[in-house]
């Protein structure tokens, strides 16, 4: 019932000719899109909420981090680095912060 009423009002707004301001002051005001939607105050949400695929991907990344903190996770072996040692994946910095003397 509410849906049919909404559709009826929406059709009236879409297909009714625009009413000049002088005539609208005597009767009830016309419905606008904001009045029809009537969302009120809604909380600000992150951009990822608008895209479900991105939201799920972020949740999966978060879950992987949680698992990695609980137990050892295989991060690839010799095939990934083609047999050479590339150093530690995390924890050891390759940046040299010393000053060379002479």
Fold and architecture overview:
This protein has 102 residues and is mostly helical. It has helices spanning 2-15, 21-24, 33-37, 52-70, 78-81.
Name some characteristics of this structure:
102 residues; 5 helices
Q: In sequence order, what are the helices and strands, one letter per element?
A: HHHHH
Largest sheet features:
none
C-alpha end-to-end distance: 88 Å
Q: Give the helix/strand class.
A: mainly alpha
Q: How many separate helices?
A: 5
Task: Name the overall outline.
Answer: elongated
Mean of the pLDDT scores?
81
Kindly provide the radius of gyration, computed on alpha-carbon positions and rounded to a whole number of angstroms. 31 Å
As a percent range, the share of strand residues is under 5%
Helical residue percent?
40-55%
Q: Please report the total strand number as a whole number.
A: 0
Instruction: Please mark out the parts with pLDDT under 50 across 5 or more consecutive residues, or reply none.
Output: none
Helices and strands in order:
Blueprint: H1 2-15, H2 21-24, H3 33-37, H4 52-70, H5 78-81
Q: Can I get a quick summary?
A:
By secondary structure, this protein is mainly alpha-helical. The chain is 45% helix and 0% strand.
């Amino acid at each position: 019932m509410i849906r049919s009423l909404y559709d009826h009002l929406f059709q009236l707004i879409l297909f009714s000719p625009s009413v000049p301001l002088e005539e609208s002051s005597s009767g009830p005001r016309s419905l606008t899109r904001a009045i029809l939607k009537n969302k009120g105050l809604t909380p600000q949400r992150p951009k990822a909420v608008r895209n479900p695929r991105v939201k799920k991907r972020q949740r999966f990344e978060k879950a992987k981090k949680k698992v990695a903190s609980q137990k050892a996770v295989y991060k690839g072996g010799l095939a990934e680095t083609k047999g050479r040692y590339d150093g530690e994946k995390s924890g050891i910095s390759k940046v040299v912060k010393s000053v060379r003397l002479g």
